[in-house]
Design a protein that fits this description.
The protein is an alpha/beta fold and 131 residues long. Helices cover 43% and strands 22% of the residues.
């Protein structure tokens, strides 16, 4: 068993909501989630659809691209945060590109590999278990 598999044992089956407007990137993330044993709660490519889904999605964690079609993802993040759903921001700008109110959220630097995604999901879900 690899270290990734061992770390993921207690997270297998968790549902992940993806908000990513680049189709190729979204499909890559979906494949990675499948490899890690996660389930897909939804994959959305527009801010409008993501705002709707944020109201009632059945997700354990959300992976949000910070910039969706030229619009910032923070209204979606706020709705998810209010519902207690842990967040991960995917961005090429790192923590420095986030407003101060969001700097406590796990950041997944683009581009990323399977191990990076695994660590970010583990961090986000572990953080939600503390509260």
């Amino acid at each position: 068993m690899s270290s990734i598999e061992a770390a993921q044992d207690d997270l297998v089956g968790r549902r992940v909501l993806i908000v990513e407007d680049e189709t190729v990137v979204a499909l890559m993330i979906e494949d990675m989630l499948d490899d890690l044993g996660y389930q897909l709660a939804g994959s959305l490519a527009s801010l409008e659809k993501a705002l709707e889904a944020a109201q009632d999605t059945d997700a354990d964690v959300a992976l949000l691209d910070v910039n969706i079609g030229g619009k910032e993802i923070f209204p979606v993040a706020e709705r998810l945060r209010q519902r207690g759903i842990p967040l991960i921001f995917a961005t090429g700008y790192g923590n420095a590109g986030l407003p101060a109110a969001w700097r406590d959220v796990t950041v997944l630097a683009k581009p990323f590999v399977l191990e990076d995604l695994s660590r970010a999901l583990g961090r986000a879900l572990a953080g939600s278990a503390r509260g």
